[in-house]
Amino acid sequence: MDIPELLASASLLVPEETATEHDLTVSDIWEYLAHDEWEIALGLLEELGDGHPVPLPFWEKLADAAEQLGFERSAAWCHWRCSEIRNGVIRADLTLRPAAEARRRTPIPGAGAGVLRPLWDVGHLSPAGEHAVSIAGLWVEGRTSLEPGGRATVRLVPLTPSHWTHIEPGRQITMHEDRTVAGRAVVLEVHRPAALTPEG
Fold first, then answer.
1. How far apart are alpha carbons 79 and 196 in whole angstroms?
2. Taking residues 24-34, what's their average pLDDT?
3. Whole-angstrom distance, CA of residue 49 vs CA of residue 47
4. How far apart are CA 32 and CA 22, in angstroms?
5. What whole-number distance in Å separates Cα of residue 3 and Cα of residue 75?
6. Residues 157, 89 contacting (CB under 8 angstroms)
């Protein structure tokens, strides 16, 4: 599919009554598409998808369109949202340890999509009774990076969702990049993986 087809197809997956915070709807997006304003249409579709539940193909189409347009961060965000639907997402308030107290001396990149997949102590124990860790990708909301000692809201996509089924808002979890604690987070929201409908 070319860019206009991808964006038009994605727009059909959004309920008509859905609106952005500025009251723009799918009808407005069609106006932008009619005038070849693809970048604006893509941005509005992302905004609609961020505020309302949409199916996996919506984000897949937007990712494809963003890649064709050469918008790397937008494409990364759309792929990230696909991962959230497949694996679930945990939003958390993360505070990194200061550089003087931890191994990390450089900022964490904000855009996840495989850039950083730290280990998390979410309360599991190994057969030997030691703390066991689980992997989750990390995306820093609204920032290009998070410096050592900094604090931000992050989105975590578990590599193995079954390791995270007991996690609830309010729980504290710790981030590790080696055996030491790199940061501490308080869980704000938990969204379980979407049940994918079998193709048929």
1. 17
2. 90
3. 5
4. 15
5. 13
6. yes
CA angle 15, 21, 22 (to 5 degrees): 100
pLDDT higher than threshold 80 for residue 126 = no
Q: What's the CA gap between 141 and 195, in Å, rounded? A: 25
pTM attached to this predicted model: 0.87
Chain-centre distance of CA 185, in angstroms? Answer: 16
In this prediction, residue 51 carries a pLDDT of 81
**Residue 170: Cβ-neighbour burial (10 angstroms; 0-12, 13-18, 19+):** exposed
Cα-based angle 54, 46, 118 (whole degrees, multiple of 5)? 85
Beta-carbon contacts of residue 130 (< 8 Å; ≥ 6 apart): none
Share of the chain above pLDDT 90, in %: 65
Contact of 181 with 174, CB cutoff 8 Å:
yes
Coil, helix or strand at residue 148: coil
User: What gap in Å lies between CA 134 and CA 159, rounded to an integer?
Assistant: 8
CATH placement of domain 88-191: 2.40.30.10
Q: Which residues pair with 188 in a beta bridge?
A: none
How far is the first Cα of the chain from the last one, in angstroms, to the nearest whole number? 22
